[in-house]
Amino acid sequence: MLQVRAKTFYAEKKGLNVADVDVPVIGGHAGITILPLFSQASPHAQLSDEETDQLTKRTQDGGTEVVTAKAGKVISTPHSLVVRHLMIC
User: Which end of the chain, N or C, is less surrounded by CB atoms within 10 Å?
Assistant: First the structure.
């Protein structure tokens, strides 16, 4: 799911088709332990340091963003469906 978050935010920021984007993500599953490698993204798009910091923070806090949007209710999200699809294909 972390890679889906990172590639979605990167694609949105740079006006790319998310289906054509790949962003490697290393580290853990929450907060600052998540490290998206935007410098290794494909296709490569130039990011300022500020954009990189913003996208990294949003990727790290993406789970909180979803929970807040759902008002704390734990239900399946479109991201989970995408992850399942990626795992099967």
Answer: C
The topology under which CATH files domain 2-88 is: L-2-Hydroxyisocaproate Dehydrogenase; Chain A, domain 2 (3.90.110)
pTM, 2 dp = 0.73
CA distance 15 to 9: 10
Asked whether the beta carbons of 5 and 59 are under 8 A apart, the reply is yes
Residue 75's pLDDT is what?
A: 54
pLDDT score of 89 more than 70: no
**What was the pLDDT predicted at 49?**
97
* Cα distances (Å, whole numbers) of residue 76 to 28, 52, 57: 21, 29, 23
Domain coordinates in residue numbering, the chain:
2-88
